[in-house]
């Protein structure tokens, strides 16, 4: 592979730095934007959102911390 080819392993880009691919990051940015607009519509997906945010946080600290705060703003599902 040449130096300008994206190298992907298990869904992560591993060129110079391990990173989440741009397409996935953009999709997650849209997902968290939807959560910000109407958090109460995502009560059943709260744990999923926290998991995605934690995953992004492990590779992109600033972006992930914003997503974690958005995910924790989702109200708890009614038991």
Overview features:
elongated, 51% helix, 79 residues, 3 helices, single chain
User: Could you describe the largest sheet, including whether it forms a barrel?
Assistant: 3 strands, antiparallel
Strand residue content: 5-15%
Helical coverage, percent range: 40-55%
Radius of gyration using CA atoms only: 15 Å
User: Order of helices and strands, N to C?
Assistant: EEEHHH
| Number of β-strand runs | 3
What's the overall geometry? elongated
Give the terminus-to-terminus CA distance: 52 Å
Description:
This protein is mainly alpha-helical and 79 residues long. It has a domain at 21-72. Helix content is 51%, strand content 9%. It has helices at residues 22-37, 46-57, 61-72; strands spanning 8-9, 12-14, 18-19. The chain has a 3-stranded antiparallel β-sheet with strand order 1-2-3, with no helix packed on it. It is elongated, with a radius of gyration of 15 Å. The N and C termini lie far apart (52 Å). 15% of the residues are buried.
Short synopsis of the structure:
The chain has three helices and three strands. It has helices at residues 22-37, 46-57, 61-72, and strands at residues 8-9, 12-14, 18-19.
Topology of this protein?
Elements (H helix, E strand, L loop, with lengths): L7 E2 L2 E3 L3 E2 L2 H16 L8 H12 L3 H12 L7
Antiparallel strand pairs: 1-2, 2-3
């Amino acid at each position: 592979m040449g130096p300008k080819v994206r190298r992907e392993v298990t869904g992560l880009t591993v060129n110079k730095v391990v990173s989440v691919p741009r397409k996935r990051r953009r999709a997650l940015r849209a997902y968290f934007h939807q959560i910000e607009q109407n958090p109460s519509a995502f009560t059943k997906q709260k744990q999923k959102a926290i998991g995605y945010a934690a995953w992004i946080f492990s590779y992109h600290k600033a972006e992930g911390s914003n997503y974690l705060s958005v995910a924790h703003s989702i109200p708890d599902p009614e038991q």
